[in-house]
Design goal:
Blueprint lengths: L2 E5 L5 H11 L4 E5 L3 H7 L11 H8 L4 E4 L2 H7 L2 E4 L19 H13 L4 E5 L7 H11 L6 E5 L9 H6 L4 E5 L3 H14 L8 E5 H32 L3 H9 L20 H14 L3 H28 L8 E5 L14 H11 L3 E5 L5 H9 L22 E3 L3 H5 L4 E4 L11 H6 L6 E4 L6 H7 L2 E4 L6 H4 L6
Parallel strand pairs: 1-2, 1-4, 2-3, 4-5, 5-6, 7-8, 9-10, 9-12, 10-11, 12-13, 13-14
Helix pairs in contact: 1-3, 5-6, 9-11, 9-12, 11-12, 12-13
Protein name: UDP-glucose 6-dehydrogenase
Organism: Citrus sinensis (Sweet orange)
C-alpha cells in the first residue's frame, strides 16, 4: 500500500488529504501537525476549519485510510510521498522584512524529514513558496541524505475557500513540477498516478520545478490585480455617478476579459493574495526588476486605499467622528462560506474605526469571539505563524463586543457595515433593524449585496461601494 504523509493540518493540508483518501481508498493518508488541539479537532466532532462538504468527506475516510496524528516522525518515516504544507509567513525583520517569505518552518520540516527517513521519498511542496525554494530543500536533504534519495516536486494548490471540496473534486488543473531528469520524471508520474484516480489526464499539467513554483504566485497576483482594478474603478464610479456593477457587467461580457473576479468590494483578503504579491515583489527586486516590482506593489496599494476609503467614508458621513458611536459589523471572515479571517479586510476596517474610538458590535456566523479579539490585537503578519506562537488569549477590547445575532449587533447602532457577503445578510428584516437604530441610520455596504433603493425607502442613508452616491454623501468629503 502506498503511504502518504502531509505535514501541516491546516486549510490546505486537511481538505486536500481528505479528498485524496476518499478518491484513493488503497492509499493510506496521514495528516500530521505539532498542534495537539488541532489534531484533536480533526479527530473529533467539530473540525478545526469550516468548509462546505469537508465534514462528510472526513467522516467517510477517518479511521479507514485517513489518519490525523501528532506522531510526525513515525508517519514521515513510513511514507513514500511526503507533502509539506507548513506556514510560509512574511518576514517581519531582517533581510526582506515585509516582503520576503520566511522559510523557517519549511527548513525545519526538511531537516526533520532527512533525520527520520530510512527509505527513498518524494517530497512535495504544497505550501506557496518562493521560486527556487525546491533548490534549497534539495540541498538540505542531499547534504543529510545518508544514502537515501529524494525527489522534490512542486504541487501548488489552487483552491478557493468556501468551494475547496468541489475544487478538489473537479479541479481546473492539477500542476506538478519536477526535475527534468529520469528520476524527476518518475517522481512526477508517481504523483500523477495519485491524482489520476479522479482527475482527467488532460487536466494534470507537468512543468519544470521553477515554472510550477512561479505559477502559483502568478495566478494569485493576476486574480488580486483584477480585484484591485475593479476597486479602482469603483472610486471613479462614485466620483462620476456611474454604477460599478453596471460597468463590471458590461466589461465582463467581453470574452477576452470574462466576468469573474470583477465584483467591487471593500478589498481582497485571505491567506494568499497579499502575501504572494509581496513575495513576488521581493523576487523581482532581487532580480533587478524594479519596474516589475513597482507594478505589483500597486495592486496592494490600491487594496489598502480601498479599505482606507471605506473607513473614511463612514467617519465623514457621521459628522466627521465616530467616537463613542456604536457601529455594527456584519461579517468578519474574508469571504462567505468560510471561517477564515486571515488578512480579512474587516481587520483593517475595524482597526480604522477603533482608532477613531468607535464602539464595535461584531457578528459573523462562523468566526468565534476569541478569533476576532486575537485578530484585532495581532501585529501584521503574526497570523501566519503556527497558533502556538501567536498571542495567547489577548485581553478583550472594551470597545469591541462580539454577538451571535445580526439584530443584536445593530440594536442602538448608528451605522451598519456589511464586510462579508454572507447570504443571510441579504434577507435580514432591514425595517426591523432601522426601527432599532439611532437616527440618522446608516448602512455601509462593503460587498454590494443589498438593494440600495429599498433601503433608502425605509429611511437609511446608504453607501454602497462604486454606486451613485446618496445626496448625504455628496456633501461630505472622504479622501483616503
Amino acid at each position: 500500500m502506498v503511504k502518504i504523509c502531509c505535514i501541516g493540518a491546516g486549510y490546505v493540508g486537511g481538505p486536500t488529504m481528505a479528498v485524496i483518501a476518499l478518491k484513493c481508498p488503497k492509499i493510506e493518508v496521514a495528516v500530521v501537525d505539532i498542534s495537539v488541539s488541532r489534531i484533536a479537532a480533526w479527530n473529533g466532532d467539530q473540525l478545526p476549519i469550516y468548509e462546505p462538504g469537508l465534514e462528510d468527506v472526513v467522516t467517510q475516510c477517518r479511521g479507514r485510510n485517513l489518519f490525523f496524528s501528532t506522531d510526525i516522525e513515525k508517519h514521515v518515516a513510513e511514507a513514500d510521498i511526503v507533502f509539506v504544507s507548513v506556514n510560509t509567513p512574511t518576514k517581519t525583520q531582517g533581510l526582506g522584512a515585509g516582503k520576503a517569505a520566511d522559510l523557517t518552518y519549511w527548513e525545519s520540516a526538511a531537516r526533520m524529514i532527512a533525520n527520520v527517513s530510512n527509505s527513498n521519498k518524494i517530497v512535495v511542496e504544497k505550501s506557496t513558496v518562493p521560486v527556487k525554494t525546491a533548490e534549497a530543500i534539495e540541498k538540505i536533504l542531499t547534504h543529510n541524505s545518508r544514502e537515501i534519495k529524494y525527489q522534490i516536486l512542486s504541487n501548488p494548490e489552487f483552491l478557493a475557500e468556501g468551494t475547496a471540496i468541489q475544487d478538489l473534486f473537479n479541479p481546473d488543473r492539477v500542476l506538478i513540477g519536477g526535475r527534468e531528469t529520469p528520476e524527476g520524471q518518475k517522481a512526477i508520474q508517481a504523483l500523477k498516478d495519485v491524482y489520476a484516480h479522479w482527475v482527467p489526464e488532460d487536466r494534470i499539467i507537468t512543468t519544470n520545478l521553477w515554472s510550477a513554483e512561479l505559477s502559483k504566485l502568478a495566478a494569485n497576483a493576476f486574480l488580486a490585480q483584477r480585484i484591485s482594478s475593479v476597486n479602482a474603478m469603483s472610486a471613479l464610479c462614485e466620483a462620476t455617478g456611474a454604477d460599478v456593477t453596471q460597468v463590471s457587467h458590461a466589461i465582463g461580457k467581453d470574452t477576452r476579459i470574462g466576468p469573474r473576479f470583477l465584483n467591487s468590494s471593500v478589498g481582497f483578503g485571505g491567506s494568499c493574495f497579499q502575501k504572494d504579491i509581496l513575495n513576488l515583489v521581493y523576487i523581482c527586486e532581487c532580480n533587478g526588476l524594479t519596474e516589475v516590482a513597482n507594478y505589483w506593489k500597486q495592486v496592494i496599494k490600491v487594496n489598502d486605499y480601498q479599505k482606507n476609503r471605506f473607513v473614511n467614508r463612514i467617519v465623514s458621513s457621521m459628522f466627521n467622528t465616530v467616537s463613542g458611536k456604536k457601529i455594527a459589523i456584519l461579517g468578519f471572515a474574508f469571504k462567505k462560506d468560510t471561517g477564515d479571517t486571515r488578512e480579512t479586510p474587516a481587520i483593517d476596517v475595524c482597526k480604522g474605526l477603533l482608532g477613531d474610538k468607535a464602539k464595535l458590535s461584531i457578528y459573523d456566523p462562523q468566526v468565534t469571539e476569541d478569533q476576532i479579539q486575537r485578530d484585532l490585537s495581532m501585529k501584521k503578519f503574526d497570523w501566519d505563524h503556527p497558533i502556538h506562537l501567536q498571542p495567547m488569549s489577548p485581553p478583550a477590547s472594551k470597545q469591541v463586543s462580539v454577538v451571535w445575532d445580526a439584530y443584536q449587533a445593530a440594536k442602538d447602532a448608528h451605522g451598519v457595515c456589511i464586510l462579508t457577503e454572507w447570504d443571510e445578510f441579504k434577507t435580514l428584516d432591514y425595517q426591523k433593524i432601522f426601527d432599532n437604530m439611532r437616527k440618522p441610520a446608516y448602512i455601509f455596504d462593503g460587498r454590494n449585496i443589498l438593494d440600495v433603493e429599498k433601503l433608502r425607502e425605509i429611511g437609511f442613508i446608504v453607501y454602497s461601494i462604486g454606486k451613485p452616491l446618496d445626496p448625504w454623501h455628496k456633501d461630505t468629503l472622504a479622501v483616503a
